[in-house]
Protein backbone atom coordinates (compact mmCIF):
# COMPACT_ATOMS: atom_id res chain seq x y z
CA UNK A 1 0.00 0.00 0.00
CA UNK A 2 1.24 3.49 -0.84
CA UNK A 3 2.39 5.71 2.02
CA UNK A 4 0.77 9.12 2.45
CA UNK A 5 3.50 11.78 2.47
CA UNK A 6 2.89 15.36 3.60
CA UNK A 7 5.38 17.79 2.05
CA UNK A 8 5.39 20.81 4.34
CA UNK A 9 6.53 24.13 2.88
CA UNK A 10 6.25 27.86 3.52
CA UNK A 11 6.92 28.77 7.13
CA UNK A 12 6.91 31.97 9.15
CA UNK A 13 10.28 33.49 8.15
CA UNK A 14 11.63 35.59 5.30
CA UNK A 15 12.54 32.35 3.53
CA UNK A 16 8.94 31.19 2.98
CA UNK A 17 8.95 31.77 -0.80
CA UNK A 18 12.20 29.80 -1.21
CA UNK A 19 10.68 27.03 0.92
CA UNK A 20 7.65 26.83 -1.38
CA UNK A 21 10.00 26.42 -4.36
CA UNK A 22 11.86 23.66 -2.52
CA UNK A 23 8.64 21.91 -1.54
CA UNK A 24 7.37 21.93 -5.11
CA UNK A 25 10.64 20.38 -6.35
CA UNK A 26 10.14 17.55 -3.84
CA UNK A 27 6.54 17.17 -4.99
CA UNK A 28 7.63 16.96 -8.63
CA UNK A 29 10.39 14.41 -8.05
CA UNK A 30 9.13 11.91 -5.47
CA UNK A 31 8.05 8.51 -6.78
CA UNK A 32 4.25 8.58 -7.15
CA UNK A 33 4.21 4.80 -7.62
CA UNK A 34 5.39 4.45 -4.01
CA UNK A 35 3.84 7.50 -2.35
CA UNK A 36 0.65 9.54 -2.31
CA UNK A 37 1.88 13.13 -2.19
CA UNK A 38 0.23 16.05 -0.41
CA UNK A 39 1.54 19.61 -0.51
CA UNK A 40 0.91 21.21 2.88
CA UNK A 41 1.32 24.97 3.02
CA UNK A 42 2.26 26.20 6.51
CA UNK A 43 1.78 29.95 6.92
CA UNK A 44 1.05 32.17 9.93
CA UNK A 45 -2.51 32.73 8.75
CA UNK A 46 -3.35 29.19 7.60
CA UNK A 47 -2.33 25.55 7.35
CA UNK A 48 -3.79 24.02 4.18
CA UNK A 49 -3.43 21.07 1.83
CA UNK A 50 -3.07 22.40 -1.72
CA UNK A 51 -4.32 19.81 -4.21
CA UNK A 52 -3.26 19.28 -7.82
CA UNK A 53 -5.79 21.90 -8.93
CA UNK A 54 -4.44 24.41 -6.37
CA UNK A 55 -7.63 24.10 -4.33
CA UNK A 56 -6.97 24.57 -0.61
CA UNK A 57 -8.28 22.20 2.08
CA UNK A 58 -7.85 23.11 5.78
CA UNK A 59 -5.46 21.07 7.93
CA UNK A 60 -6.75 20.05 11.36
CA UNK A 61 -3.98 21.13 13.76
CA UNK A 62 -5.30 18.81 16.47
CA UNK A 63 -4.10 15.70 14.62
CA UNK A 64 -2.44 17.02 11.41
CA UNK A 65 -5.01 15.53 9.06
CA UNK A 66 -7.01 16.97 6.21
CA UNK A 67 -10.43 16.06 4.85
CA UNK A 68 -11.26 15.94 1.14
CA UNK A 69 -14.79 15.13 -0.07
CA UNK A 70 -15.65 13.70 3.32
CA UNK A 71 -12.58 11.43 3.43
CA UNK A 72 -10.09 11.99 6.26
CA UNK A 73 -6.47 11.75 5.16
CA UNK A 74 -3.81 10.72 7.69
CA UNK A 75 -0.10 10.90 6.93
CA UNK A 76 2.60 8.25 7.35
CA UNK A 77 5.53 10.67 7.09
CA UNK A 78 6.27 14.38 6.73
CA UNK A 79 8.89 15.68 4.30
CA UNK A 80 10.19 18.86 5.92
CA UNK A 81 10.93 21.53 3.28
CA UNK A 82 10.47 24.55 5.58
CA UNK A 83 13.52 26.80 5.80
CA UNK A 84 13.66 28.80 9.04
CA UNK A 85 10.86 28.90 11.63
CA UNK A 86 8.99 26.60 12.39
CA UNK A 87 10.57 23.82 10.30
CA UNK A 88 14.32 24.26 10.51
CA UNK A 89 14.37 25.31 14.17
CA UNK A 90 12.58 22.16 15.32
CA UNK A 91 9.37 23.82 16.55
CA UNK A 92 6.96 21.94 14.30
CA UNK A 93 8.96 18.73 14.72
CA UNK A 94 8.25 18.68 18.46
CA UNK A 95 4.56 18.90 17.52
CA UNK A 96 4.96 15.92 15.17
CA UNK A 97 6.68 13.97 17.95
CA UNK A 98 3.62 14.53 20.15
CA UNK A 99 1.51 13.08 17.34
CA UNK A 100 3.93 10.16 16.88
CA UNK A 101 4.40 11.20 13.25
CA UNK A 102 7.65 10.44 11.39
CA UNK A 103 9.55 13.23 9.58
CA UNK A 104 12.61 13.55 7.36
CA UNK A 105 14.64 15.99 9.48
CA UNK A 106 16.91 15.37 12.44
CA UNK A 107 15.11 15.29 15.85
CA UNK A 108 13.69 18.60 17.11
CA UNK A 109 16.44 19.13 19.73
CA UNK A 110 19.24 18.83 17.17
CA UNK A 111 17.33 21.11 14.81
CA UNK A 112 16.89 23.72 17.55
CA UNK A 113 20.60 23.65 18.46
CA UNK A 114 21.89 23.81 14.89
CA UNK A 115 19.48 26.61 13.96
CA UNK A 116 21.14 28.72 16.67
CA UNK A 117 24.47 29.68 15.09
CA UNK A 118 26.26 30.64 18.30
CA UNK A 119 25.05 27.54 20.18
CA UNK A 120 26.32 25.37 17.34
CA UNK A 121 29.75 27.02 17.45
CA UNK A 122 29.91 26.67 21.24
CA UNK A 123 28.93 22.99 21.00
CA UNK A 124 31.50 22.13 18.32
CA UNK A 125 34.60 23.98 19.60
CA UNK A 126 35.38 21.44 22.38
CA UNK A 127 35.40 18.70 19.72
CA UNK A 128 38.29 20.36 17.88
CA UNK A 129 36.27 21.97 15.09
CA UNK A 130 38.00 25.18 13.97
CA UNK A 131 35.79 28.29 13.86
CA UNK A 132 36.25 32.02 13.27
CA UNK A 133 36.54 34.47 16.17
CA UNK A 134 33.12 35.81 17.07
CA UNK A 135 31.21 38.26 19.25
CA UNK A 136 27.61 37.75 20.43
CA UNK A 137 25.05 40.46 21.00
CA UNK A 138 21.40 40.58 22.08
CA UNK A 139 18.81 43.22 21.30
CA UNK A 140 19.09 46.10 23.78
CA UNK A 141 22.78 45.51 24.56
CA UNK A 142 25.05 48.54 24.66
CA UNK A 143 27.01 48.67 21.41
CA UNK A 144 30.70 49.35 22.00
CA UNK A 145 32.06 49.17 18.47
CA UNK A 146 35.68 49.47 19.62
CA UNK A 147 35.34 46.40 21.88
CA UNK A 148 33.63 44.40 19.14
CA UNK A 149 36.24 45.20 16.52
CA UNK A 150 39.08 44.57 18.96
CA UNK A 151 37.72 41.02 19.24
CA UNK A 152 36.93 40.21 15.59
CA UNK A 153 38.86 42.80 13.56
CA UNK A 154 38.02 44.26 10.16
CA UNK A 155 36.50 43.31 7.86
CA UNK A 156 33.89 41.25 9.69
CA UNK A 157 30.41 39.81 9.15
CA UNK A 158 27.26 40.73 11.05
CA UNK A 159 24.46 38.20 10.83
CA UNK A 160 21.24 37.20 12.59
CA UNK A 161 21.86 34.34 15.01
CA UNK A 162 18.85 32.49 13.59
CA UNK A 163 17.89 32.43 9.93
CA UNK A 164 19.23 31.67 6.51
CA UNK A 165 19.47 32.69 2.84
CA UNK A 166 21.72 35.56 3.98
CA UNK A 167 18.77 37.72 5.07
CA UNK A 168 20.09 40.47 7.35
CA UNK A 169 23.78 39.65 6.73
CA UNK A 170 26.31 42.44 6.11
CA UNK A 171 30.03 42.61 5.47
CA UNK A 172 31.51 45.44 7.52
CA UNK A 173 34.72 47.18 6.42
CA UNK A 174 34.89 50.14 8.83
CA UNK A 175 33.91 51.16 12.35
CA UNK A 176 31.24 53.44 10.92
CA UNK A 177 29.52 50.57 9.07
CA UNK A 178 29.16 48.37 12.16
CA UNK A 179 26.18 50.04 13.86
CA UNK A 180 24.01 50.17 10.68
CA UNK A 181 24.86 46.50 10.01
CA UNK A 182 23.76 45.57 13.53
CA UNK A 183 20.48 47.43 12.98
CA UNK A 184 19.88 45.47 9.74
CA UNK A 185 20.55 42.14 11.45
CA UNK A 186 18.30 43.05 14.38
CA UNK A 187 15.37 43.43 11.96
CA UNK A 188 15.62 39.67 11.37
CA UNK A 189 16.47 38.48 14.88
CA UNK A 190 16.84 39.64 18.50
CA UNK A 191 20.23 37.91 18.71
CA UNK A 192 23.16 38.53 16.38
CA UNK A 193 26.56 37.09 15.67
CA UNK A 194 29.55 39.19 14.60
CA UNK A 195 32.31 37.09 13.03
CA UNK A 196 35.88 37.56 11.94
CA UNK A 197 36.42 37.65 8.18
CA UNK A 198 38.43 34.69 6.93
CA UNK A 199 40.30 35.11 3.66
CA UNK A 200 40.20 31.73 2.02
CA UNK A 201 38.28 29.33 -0.21
CA UNK A 202 34.56 29.19 0.51
CA UNK A 203 33.10 25.71 0.22
CA UNK A 204 29.92 23.89 1.09
CA UNK A 205 29.43 20.16 1.58
CA UNK A 206 26.34 18.03 2.03
CA UNK A 207 26.27 15.19 4.54
CA UNK A 208 23.31 12.84 4.46
CA UNK A 209 22.07 9.59 5.93
CA UNK A 210 21.95 7.45 2.79
CA UNK A 211 20.93 3.80 2.84
CA UNK A 212 21.62 3.57 6.59
CA UNK A 213 25.13 5.07 6.34
CA UNK A 214 26.53 8.58 6.78
CA UNK A 215 27.59 9.83 3.34
CA UNK A 216 29.64 12.95 2.58
CA UNK A 217 28.70 14.33 -0.83
CA UNK A 218 31.10 15.95 -3.34
CA UNK A 219 32.34 19.35 -2.15
CA UNK A 220 31.21 22.57 -3.85
CA UNK A 221 33.44 25.64 -4.20
CA UNK A 222 31.60 28.95 -4.09
CA UNK A 223 32.91 31.95 -6.02
CA UNK A 224 30.61 34.94 -5.51
CA UNK A 225 30.50 37.97 -7.80
CA UNK A 226 29.46 40.02 -4.76
CA UNK A 227 31.22 40.83 -1.50
CA UNK A 228 30.08 37.49 -0.09
CA UNK A 229 27.65 34.64 -0.79
CA UNK A 230 24.56 36.81 -0.27
CA UNK A 231 20.94 36.36 -1.42
CA UNK A 232 21.65 37.54 -4.98
CA UNK A 233 24.63 35.22 -5.26
CA UNK A 234 22.61 32.28 -3.92
CA UNK A 235 19.40 32.72 -5.89
CA UNK A 236 19.94 35.21 -8.71
CA UNK A 237 22.92 33.58 -10.40
CA UNK A 238 25.61 35.98 -9.17
CA UNK A 239 28.03 33.23 -8.18
CA UNK A 240 29.84 30.22 -9.53
CA UNK A 241 29.18 26.97 -7.70
CA UNK A 242 31.85 24.53 -8.80
CA UNK A 243 31.39 20.83 -8.01
CA UNK A 244 33.78 19.17 -7.34
CA UNK A 245 35.66 22.02 -5.66
CA UNK A 246 39.06 23.04 -7.03
CA UNK A 247 40.93 22.14 -3.86
CA UNK A 248 43.88 19.91 -3.07
CA UNK A 249 43.54 16.29 -1.95
CA UNK A 250 44.71 17.29 1.53
CA UNK A 251 42.15 20.10 1.75
CA UNK A 252 39.42 17.75 0.50
CA UNK A 253 40.36 15.12 3.09
CA UNK A 254 40.32 17.69 5.92
CA UNK A 255 36.89 18.99 4.89
CA UNK A 256 35.42 15.49 4.67
CA UNK A 257 36.76 14.60 8.12
CA UNK A 258 35.39 17.82 9.66
CA UNK A 259 31.99 17.58 7.96
CA UNK A 260 31.42 13.96 8.98
CA UNK A 261 32.64 14.67 12.52
CA UNK A 262 30.15 17.54 12.88
CA UNK A 263 27.32 15.30 11.65
CA UNK A 264 28.24 12.56 14.10
CA UNK A 265 29.01 14.58 17.26
CA UNK A 266 25.75 16.51 16.88
CA UNK A 267 23.98 13.15 16.40
CA UNK A 268 22.27 14.38 13.24
CA UNK A 269 20.09 12.50 10.78
CA UNK A 270 18.53 13.31 7.44
CA UNK A 271 20.00 15.89 5.09
CA UNK A 272 22.47 18.61 6.09
CA UNK A 273 24.86 21.06 4.44
CA UNK A 274 27.91 22.51 6.20
CA UNK A 275 29.69 25.67 5.08
CA UNK A 276 33.43 26.20 5.58
CA UNK A 277 36.21 28.62 4.69
CA UNK A 278 39.51 26.91 3.93
CA UNK A 279 42.53 28.94 5.07
CA UNK A 280 45.75 27.23 3.96
CA UNK A 281 44.76 23.60 4.47
CA UNK A 282 42.51 24.10 7.49
CA UNK A 283 38.69 24.20 7.11
CA UNK A 284 36.98 26.70 9.42
CA UNK A 285 33.35 25.83 10.09
CA UNK A 286 30.90 28.69 9.42
CA UNK A 287 27.38 27.32 9.78
CA UNK A 288 25.10 24.36 9.29
CA UNK A 289 21.94 24.16 7.17
CA UNK A 290 19.59 21.38 8.26
CA UNK A 291 16.90 22.16 5.68
CA UNK A 292 19.14 23.33 2.83
CA UNK A 293 17.71 24.63 -0.42
CA UNK A 294 16.57 21.82 -2.70
CA UNK A 295 15.50 23.73 -5.79
CA UNK A 296 17.10 22.77 -9.11
CA UNK A 297 19.60 25.62 -8.63
CA UNK A 298 20.51 24.69 -5.05
CA UNK A 299 23.87 23.31 -3.99
CA UNK A 300 22.91 20.06 -2.29
CA UNK A 301 20.87 18.57 -5.18
CA UNK A 302 23.80 19.32 -7.51
CA UNK A 303 26.17 17.56 -5.11
CA UNK A 304 23.86 14.56 -4.95
CA UNK A 305 23.70 14.36 -8.74
CA UNK A 306 27.52 14.58 -8.87
CA UNK A 307 27.54 11.55 -6.56
CA UNK A 308 25.21 9.70 -8.93
CA UNK A 309 22.10 10.21 -6.77
CA UNK A 310 19.04 11.52 -8.60
CA UNK A 311 16.53 13.84 -6.94
CA UNK A 312 14.03 10.97 -6.95
CA UNK A 313 16.54 8.79 -5.06
CA UNK A 314 17.62 11.62 -2.72
CA UNK A 315 14.09 12.52 -1.64
CA UNK A 316 12.87 8.93 -1.55
CA UNK A 317 15.83 7.90 0.59
CA UNK A 318 15.05 10.70 3.06
CA UNK A 319 11.54 9.29 3.51
CA UNK A 320 12.73 5.68 3.83
CA UNK A 321 15.32 6.69 6.46
CA UNK A 322 12.58 8.48 8.39
CA UNK A 323 10.21 5.52 8.19
CA UNK A 324 12.79 2.85 9.10
Name the features:
Dna Ligase, domain 1, 3 domains, Rossmann fold, 324 residues, six-stranded antiparallel beta sheet
What's the structural blueprint in terms of helices and strands?
Blueprint: E1 3-10, H1 16-29, E2 35-43, E3 46-50, E4 56-60, E5 65-68, E6 71-73, E7 77-80, H2 91-98, E8 102-103, H3 108-115, H4 117-124, E9 134-138, H5 145-152, E10 156-160, E11 170-172, H6 175-186, E12 191-196, E13 201-210, E14 213-216, E15 220-224, H7 231-235, E16 239-242, H8 249-265, E17 271-279, E18 282-289, H9 299-306, H10 311-323
Parallel strand pairs: 1-2, 1-7, 7-8
Antiparallel strand pairs: 2-3, 3-4, 4-5, 5-6, 9-12, 10-11, 10-12, 13-14, 13-15, 13-17, 15-16, 17-18
Largest sheet: 8 strands, mixed
CATH architecture of the largest domain: 2-Layer Sandwich
Q: Provide the structure class.
A: alpha+beta
- CATH homology group of the largest domain: ATP-grasp fold, B domain
| Unreliable residue stretches | 229-235
Q: Give the % helix.
A: 25-40%
How large is the radius of gyration?
20 Å
* Sheet with the most strands: spatial strand order: 6-5-4-3-2-1-7-8
CATH class of the largest domain, anyone? Answer: Alpha Beta
Question: What is the global morphology?
Answer: globular
Rounded to the nearest angstrom, the distance between the terminal CA atoms is 16 Å
Number of domains: 3
Summed over residues and divided by their number, the pLDDT gives a mean of 92
Question: In what range is the share of β-strand residues?
Answer: 25-35%
N-to-C series of helices and strands: EHEEEEEEHEHHEHEEHEEEEHEHEEHH
SS field, number of helical segments: 10
Q: Briefly note the CATH topology name of the largest domain.
A: D-amino Acid Aminotransferase, Chain A, domain 1
User: How many extended strands?
Assistant: 18
